[in-house]
Automatic annotation (TrEMBL):
This is Lipoprotein-releasing system ATP-binding protein. GO terms for molecular function: ATP binding; hydrolase activity. Belongs to the ABC transporter superfamily. SMART domains: AAA.
Length: 230
């Protein structure tokens, strides 16, 4: 098998017990290849966010297996998961959660400072590199809250890239953007997958965004009902 699989789920089931027992995910099994731009779609309540939470190693309470980078993630401790997450996963959310008073540069540096693998000077250089990739280097020293929504999302993408993650997970990454900025974010994701071998898994309600991605997994009532190569 010469496919380069970066993430795999095997028969993932998940239940919620409050207020009554309810199976939110049923037998979720799929693989994601390196460099793939994958979108997860489905009606509200179909289980997309619950699944993304598991894929991003933030939820440990499920049945089945999650494998990332050929390593079994299921069963690891909270601390082990935090390390794996910092090293291998970048996050882009609907709301960017930038620290408003901090400069853009500092915001981008934070996940690398937390990881503590490089000196602050090296991290600053890397942060400038990422800002440059996103054409945001001129904004580096501005406080994050002085930028437009679209610009702030680009800073959030630079922040997600700072530790050179294996996978970027997006939870409605364009949910708060107008169509022009949605297109910009889409083009950035496409460029990252095409030219930098980045893998992206994004939950979206935007059908057009999904149809332009490489592959769309469709969920309904906690199951995968389709996987379409676009
Ligand atoms: N903590 C929880 N306890 C109980 N039920 C929950 C919990 N979180 C989510 N659910 C239920 O699980 C189902 C799936 O929710 P989830 O948020 O994963 O759906 P979704 O597809 O991401 O929806 P949306 O598109 O609206 O974000 C829903 O019926 C929701 O009400």
């Amino acid at each position: 098998m010469d496919k380069n699989i970066v993430l795999k789920t095997e028969h993932i089931d998940k239940y919620f017990y409050d207020p009554v027992e309810f199976q939110v995910l049923k037998n979720i099994a799929f693989e994601v290849e390196k460099g793939e731009f994958l979108t997860l779609v489905g009606k509200s309540g179909s289980g997309k966010s619950t699944l993304l939470y598991i894929l991003s190693t933030m939820d440990r309470d499920y049945k089945g297996n999650l494998i990332i980078d050929n390593e079994l993630i299921t069963g690891k401790s909270v601390d082990e998961l935090a390390t794996i997450r910092n090293e291998k996963i970048g996050f882009v959310f609907q709301f960017h959660y930038l620290l408003a008073e901090f400069t853009c540069l500092k915001n981008v540096m934070i996940p690398a400072l937390k990881l503590g693998k490089h000196s602050p000077k090296e991290i600053e250089e890397r942060a400038y590199e990422k800002l440059k990739m996103l054409d945001m280097q001129d904004q580096a020293l501005k406080p994050a809250n002085k930028l437009s929504g679209g610009q702030q999302q680009r800073i959030a993408i630079a922040r997600a890239l700072i530790n050179d993650p294996l996978i970027i997970m997006g939870d409605e990454p364009t949910g708060n953007l107008d169509s022009k900025n949605t297109d910009i974010v889409f083009d950035i994701f496409k460029d990252l997958t095409r030219n930098f071998g980045q893998t992206i898994i994004a939950v979206t309600h935007d059908d057009e965004f999904a149809q332009k991605s490489d592959r769309t997994i469709e969920m309904k009532d906690g199951t995968i009902i389709g996987s379409h190569t676009n």
